[in-house]
Amino acid sequence: MKNLILLACLLSLGGCGWLNRSIGYWSGYTTICVAETNVMYVQFPSGASVLVDKDGKPQSCKP
User: Fold this and answer.
1) What is the pTM of this model?
2) Cα–Cα distance between 63 and 51 in angstroms, integer?
3) CA angle, corner 41, sides to 36 and 43, nearest 5?
4) pLDDT tens sequence across 3-59
5) Cα distance between the two ends of the chain
């Protein structure tokens, strides 16, 4: 049980975006909201890019 808790802590604290990259790998992409800039990003397995609307403007995070 102690090992399971340790593993859960390591997976949640380590990796810095590891889960989002993993989701992006299996689904093709995932979206991430960066609260400091209020901008949505698209996370791919190989990198990230700003999510833009039809006019080419960055899409803000929805409340």
Assistant:
1) 0.56
2) 16
3) 130
4) 777 666 555 555 556 666 666 667 777 788 888 888 998 888 777 889 998 999 999
5) 38
